[in-house]
Design goal:
By secondary structure, the protein is mainly alpha-helical. It has seven helices and two strands. The protein has a two-stranded antiparallel ribbon.
């Protein structure tokens, strides 16, 4: 009897997992692939996606509201890029079902469309602002001086508040407007 259970139990679990995955009842997510170590999460793809996005967004205040007087734009741009990568990776949970033609309800399709829109909006913002600002920021940080716009004066980078430094960026108004657009977009989604 014990030998029978040892043989049947793994087979039964394998069949159960296979049916759950093929019938779109569960989603598999491998978080870290290491030799012999990965997580298999048994859950509905929509629930898995929502839970993952919710816990991620709980840590992303600047997506919803940026404060130019307190927030470092360099760190915020890095956070936005990580958010872009996160949504691109999480979209695979929904995309896998989409490729199989297994959208059983409109909710998955709607989440896919919203995620795609978020990715496009972040991509547009980052393409417009990330490279220029990061190059400027690295230069002024490395040289420890920032030329004050429309003046011959210089500020010492490491002894000046971040808001005064960022105000000297040659596209400051444009990047602030871009941040506001992202904030408004995320709040409306």
């Amino acid at each position: 009897m014990t030998n029978f259970l040892i043989l049947i139990l793994p087979l039964f679990l394998f069949v159960l997992v296979w049916f759950g995955w093929t019938l779109n009842k569960w989603a598999f997510k491998i978080e870290k692939l290491t030799l012999g170590g990965f997580n298999i999460l048994f859950d509905n793809p929509v629930k898995l996606y929502k839970r993952s996005v919710q816990s991620f967004l709980d840590t992303k205040r600047t997506l919803f509201l940026i404060d130019p007087s307190r927030d470092n734009f360099d760190e915020t741009l890095t956070s936005y890029y990580k958010t872009y990568e996160f949504f691109r990776n999480e979209m695979k949970i929904l995309d896998n079902q989409r490729k199989k033609g297994k959208f059983f309800d409109g909710e998955q399709e709607k989440l896919y469309a919203i995620t795609n829109e978020i990715i496009q909006k972040l991509n547009e913002f980052l393409t417009s602002h990330q490279n220029n600002f990061k190059r400027w920021y690295k230069y002024v940080s490395d040289n420890n001086e920032v030329k004050v716009l429309n003046d011959e004066e210089f500020l010492e980078f490491h002894l000046t508040p971040i808001d005064k430094i960022q105000e000297q960026y040659y596209r400051y108004n444009e990047i602030c407007e871009g941040f506001k657009e992202i904030n408004q977009f995320v709040l409306c989604v």
